[in-house]
From TrEMBL, chain B:
<keyword id="KW-1003">Cell membrane</keyword>
<protein>
    <submittedName>
        <fullName>ABC transporter permease subunit</fullName>
    </submittedName>
</protein>
<feature type="coiled-coil region">
    <location>
        <begin position="235"/>
        <end position="262"/>
    </location>
</feature>
<feature type="transmembrane region" description="Helical">
    <location>
        <begin position="380"/>
        <end position="413"/>
    </location>
</feature>
<feature type="transmembrane region" description="Helical">
    <location>
        <begin position="161"/>
        <end position="180"/>
    </location>
</feature>
<feature type="transmembrane region" description="Helical">
    <location>
        <begin position="546"/>
        <end position="568"/>
    </location>
</feature>
<keyword id="KW-0175">Coiled coil</keyword>
<keyword id="KW-0472">Membrane</keyword>
<feature type="transmembrane region" description="Helical">
    <location>
        <begin position="112"/>
        <end position="134"/>
    </location>
</feature>
<keyword id="KW-1133">Transmembrane helix</keyword>
<feature type="domain" description="ABC transmembrane type-1">
    <location>
        <begin position="419"/>
        <end position="598"/>
    </location>
</feature>
<dbReference type="Pfam" id="PF00528">
    <property type="entry name" value="BPD_transp_1"/>
</dbReference>
<feature type="transmembrane region" description="Helical">
    <location>
        <begin position="419"/>
        <end position="445"/>
    </location>
</feature>
<feature type="transmembrane region" description="Helical">
    <location>
        <begin position="580"/>
        <end position="598"/>
    </location>
</feature>
<keyword id="KW-0812">Transmembrane</keyword>
<dbReference type="InterPro" id="IPR035906">
    <property type="entry name" value="MetI-like_sf"/>
</dbReference>
<dbReference type="InterPro" id="IPR000515">
    <property type="entry name" value="MetI-like"/>
</dbReference>
């Protein structure tokens, strides 16, 4: 069962949203026409995806593409104009307000780009906020908060005010706050975007490490493709409110769905992303062009899952092409030419 | 790549490529202006280069070309110059008249000649100098307009007949009337009032004598008078008059006199010249045209309700209304009409809700008494100690010294008890302000419509002079301490409300969103996020409210507030400057003490 499930979610902003929605349904209006005729902004356009337990799902797109809007549907900070959202099988749109608040406090933690900590509360009280809202007593709250602080390596900072911490530390507090109630789901809206590159890198690594242990189902938002590739098990690419492609980093880099995505991935290093199987040449085709494999010579050998980085390592210094073997049989061959083409991109079969 | 914007349609400005050439801007006379513009740009246009049209008809030129800056400046300079020259026209006849009798009027002659001299010089200099400046600046201003037009297409360009007509209309409205006014001496205010009275009187007479027009009315009136005079002469001719005849004659004389007065009024009316009317309507005060029937003069009184008492309800009362007969023919202005209507409504409310007003007065009086007791009966040593301890704990050494010396001043000048009375008044008023203002402020922050209504009301309240608040307080509650508290509360409340609302509205949307995301309810959001984050703003509001309450506590001494203010008002009445000054200093010291201590408390809060 998927933990988070979105089905044909639409969000139209404006006082005449429902009218606009009906017109979109009936006439298939575009964004510009909707704006012109109904003064309504299409924030999210027919989004569907699901996130499995323990998975990190990255939503990536330029600013204004509707990522924040979409992610706020998951805890119903924003009501969809149309469509359903299910949290662990339960329709969040059908929840009464009391149940909704309980779900938000117990099951969903959220981290914000601008931290949004409460400036008048100590770090510990900030972290215990969700528990406090649920009426948990002060002692248990403090214990949970200190545990969460330890998780984000901020042990001993509980009595500081947020303003006394650096940006990176504040965002750790934000993360600890989201983790304190031990929710199943984490929503992270560009959590590291406001940080310096070095600190961002640090926090990314740290969060990845954490994730391996905690196994939280995570929706991670970013406008930075590198970050999406680093963090995401799968990536959804958004453009103008629409999810244009969903897939693993390799899928997206090797088979962009359209020119927009292709433009995006053009500058991405493929060394660690693309595997041998994507670029290798069929042995027969190779034999036709260059003659058969000479079993006497010692060819470098790799498996189909190896990335281009390791193929480069094997190829340098060797005069012979690399044999790609699966279960001891040769499934493909990578010459230096193929490798260079593969690095450049656009040559996949 | 990160941070770039694609698809953000709103962020891409349409850049239209409109034609911004000099030719399009000028439309006419390009060969003259194009080189001039270039010289302006190079700063080589000589000061003595005059634009001939701007020299001759500056306002027409600038209206035609849309250089409205120059239009208004030119109009102002020229009209001022003409007004000065018109003073010469005004004073010349007076001078001529005075010169008929030079010995008696020596001072007048000297004064008039002096004025005529000065005004003619100023007028001529303004006219000539102004025109030279306009003619020399016109091209520069025009070039500046061109530069602005290149950036903003809404800036006027080209030439336009419409603008010219508009300019002429403006001149026609401004210039002739102003010029004419300058030639006239100040109007006698009563003259215009008499016009209106005469017109009203004649209207009534026309109706009474059923006359078709004023001439008709005059002949009827003189006919009536003649008729009575003839009869009187007949009576006078009789040697000995009976008592009856004597009283008839007296009656006739009176009637004739009244008729004569009516006739005089009618004659006055016909003698009003068109010019008088014009002067009254256009060159003096705004003409008060509307004259209304006054509102019915009703008084409301609460009296014992005999019927109900008879039916067994003890002490029952009811409101009765008494209507006074209207004064015949009384007409009032809109101002008087409204004022009287408001009086009647207040009167009604007072009678109708007497119980409510009494209860309110009572609550205020009781709480005031309690607080006064607390302040005045606590030994001075204890109060002084508390003040000094507070300032020491929150506001540091400097403030503590200041507070101690201020308290010393109050004690030495025997103002202690009176100052404590003022404190009590301020404390009660502030408490009411907080109790009422805080919820209103919260509601205002939460409800857009309520805010939309309340905000302008608060703005108006803050601009109304403080003395005005005494009027309704007195109207509803009479003169004593409770209405003084009430006036103080109303005067001091706006900042409390406004800054509470502001503080809540200032809480960042993202912070509220985060609280909601963690499952906060509306109430929790208010209690745990919005109010705590609004505290600095609320404290600032509290501080302002206290300061306003203190200043109003002084003013409301006029309607019975006791304390330092009462000393000031009584000193004002008896012209005892020294007494008033010392009490004034005491008030300032009390205000500063409270302000400093509160600031200290606020700072130590925000340090947390
Ligand atoms: N409350 C709103 N009313 C109208 N338009 C909105 C509102 N919120 C967001 N939008 C629009 O929706 C689009 C997506 O915004 P957002 O979700 O914040 O983008 P992202 O997080 O990807 O930068 C933007 O064009 C924005 O102008
Ligand atoms: Mg966003």
């Amino acid at each position: 069962m998927s933990v988070v499930e979105l089905e044909n979610v639409w969000k139209v902003f404006g006082s005449r949203a429902s009218e606009a929605m009906a017109a979109i349904r009936a006439e298939g209006l575009g964004k510009a026409e909707v704006l012109e005729r109904f003064e309504a902004v299409v924030g999210v356009k027919d989004a569907s995806f699901s996130v499995e337990e323990g998975e990190i799902f990255c939503l990536m797109g330029l600013s204004g593409s509707g990522k924040s809007t979409l992610v706020r549907h998951i805890n119903r900070l924003i009501e969809p104009t149309s469509g359903t959202i299910r949290i662990m099988g339960e329709d969040i749109g059908a929840m009464k307000s009391e149940q909704l608040r309980a779900t938000r406090a117990d099951k969903i933690g959220m981290v914000f780009q601008n931290m949004a900590l409460l400036p008048h509360r100590s770090v510990r009280d900030n972290i215990g906020f969700a528990l406090e809202l649920r009426g948990i007593d002060g002692y248990s709250r403090a214990q949970a908060a200190d545990r969460a602080l330890e998780t984000v390596s901020l042990h001993g900072y509980g009595d500081r005010l947020p303003s006394e911490l650096s940006g990176g530390m504040q965002q750790r507090v934000g993360l600890a706050r989201a983790l304190a109630a031990d929710p199943e789901i984490l929503l992270m809206d560009e959590p590291f975007s406001a940080l310096d590159p070095l600190i961002r890198r640090n926090l990314q690594d740290e969060f990845l490490g954490l994730s391996q242990n905690l196994k939280k189902t995570t929706v991670f938002i970013t406008h930075d493709l590198d970050e999406a590739i680093r963090m995401g098990d799968r990536i959804g690419i958004m453009k103008d409110g629409e999810i244009v492609q969903i897939g693993t980093a390799e899928d997206i880099v090797t088979a962009p769905a359209d020119d927009y995505v292709a433009d995006f991935v053009a500058g991405i290093s493929r060394l660690k992303l693309v595997s041998a199987s994507k670029i290798m040449v069929n042995p027969d085709a190779h034999a036709a062009a260059h003659g058969p494999i000479d079993p006497a010579k010692s060819y470098p050998v790799a498996s189909p899952e190896d990335d281009l980085d390791s193929l480069v390592g094997l190829s340098t210094g060797a005069d012979l092409p690399v044999l790609i073997k699966h279960d001891d049989s040769i499934v493909g061959i990578v010459t230096k030419d193929t490798l260079l083409k593969g690095l450049q991109g656009g040559a996949e079969a | 790549m990160s941070g770039a914007v694609i698809g953000g349609g709103a962020e891409q400005r349409e850049i239209d490529d409109r034609d911004v050439s000099v030719g399009t801007f000028l439309q006419e006379k390009v060969p003259y202006y194009a080189p001039v513009f270039e010289k302006v740009q190079r700063a080589t246009l000589p000061r003595w280069h005059l634009n001939i049209w701007a020299l001759l008809v500056p306002w027409l030129w600038s209206a035609y070309r849309g250089v409205w800056v120059l239009f208004w400046i030119a109009l102002a300079i020229d009209v001022t110059a003409i007004v000065c020259l018109m003073q010469v026209v005004k004073f010349s006849p007076l001078l001529a008249e005075a010169q008929l009798n030079p010995e008696a009027n020596a001072t007048l002659i000297a004064r008039y000649s002096h004025w005529i001299n000065i005004y003619s010089w100023i007028g001529v200099l303004l006219l000539i100098g102004g025109r030279l400046w306009m003619a020399s600046s016109a091209n520069r201003l025009y070039y500046a307009q061109y530069a602005r037009w290149r950036i903003n297409s809404a800036v006027p360009s080209g030439v336009s007949m419409q603008r010219l007509v508009l300019g002429v209309m403006v001149i026609l409205i401004v210039a002739p009337l102003t010029t004419y006014r300058a030639t006239q001496l100040r109007l006698d205010e009563r003259a215009c009032f008499n016009h209106i009275r005469a017109a009203e009187g004649v209207e009534a007479l026309l109706a009474r004598y059923d006359a078709s027009d004023v001439t008709d009315l005059m002949s009827i009136l003189s006919g009536e008078i003649t008729q009575r005079e003839t009869r009187m002469e007949a009576l006078n001719a009789i040697e000995t008059l009976s008592d009856e005849q004597k009283s008839e004659r007296a009656a006739l004389r009176k009637e004739a006199r009244d008729l004569g007065r009516d006739l005089e009024l009618t004659e006055d009316f016909t003698n009003i010249t068109a010019r008088d009317k014009f002067d009254c309507y256009f060159i003096d005060d705004f003409p008060t045209l509307a004259r209304l029937e006054p509102p019915e003069d009703i008084t409301y009184r609460r009296v014992p309700d005999e019927e109900a008492i008879a039916a067994g309800r003890e002490g029952a009362t009811k409101v009765i209304e008494q209507i006074k007969d209207p004064v015949e023919g009384r007409k009032v202005t809109i101002f008087t009409y409204s004022a009287e209507s408001i009086d009647i409504s207040i009167n009604y409310l007072r009678a109708q809700f007497a119980g409510g007003f009494d209860a309110m007065t009572n609550v205020l009086r009781q709480s005031l008494i309690r607080v006064e007791v607390a302040f005045m009966q606590t030994p001075w040593l204890v109060v002084a100690f508390l003040f000094i301890a507070l300032s020491w704990a929150f506001a540091g050494l400097g403030t503590t010294i200041f507070v101690a010396s201020s308290l010393g001043f109050l004690a030495l000048f025997e103002l202690w008890q009176i100052a404590m009375q003022t404190m009590a008044l301020v404390v009660v008023s502030t408490a009411v302000c907080v109790l009422v203002g805080l919820p209103i402020g919260i509601w205002m922050a939460k409800n857009k419509w309520f805010r939309w209504i309340t905000e302008p009301i608060l703005d108006v309240m803050q601009t109304i002079p403080s003395l005005s608040y005494l009027v309704p307080a007195v109207a509803f509650f009479g003169i004593s301490q409770p209405p003084a508290v009430l006036a103080t509360v109303i005067f001091a409340m706006p900042p409390m409300i406004k800054l509470t609302a502001l503080g809540i509205l200032q809480v960042p949307e993202s912070t509220k969103e985060a609280a909601l995301a963690f499952g906060a309810s509306e109430k929790q959001l208010l209690r745990k996020v919005e109010l705590p984050m609004a505290i600095p703003s609320i404290m600032a509001g509290l501080n302002q409210t206290i300061m306003l309450a203190l200043s109003m506590a002084t003013i409301s001494a006029f309607i019975g507030a006791e304390g330092l203010g009462a000393i000031v008002t009584s000193a004002l009445g008896d012209a005892q400057a020294g007494k008033g000054l010392l009490a004034g200093i005491a008030i300032a010291l009390v205000a500063m003490m409270i302000d400093r201590i509160l600031k200290g408390i606020r700072n130590s809060f925000s340090r947390i």
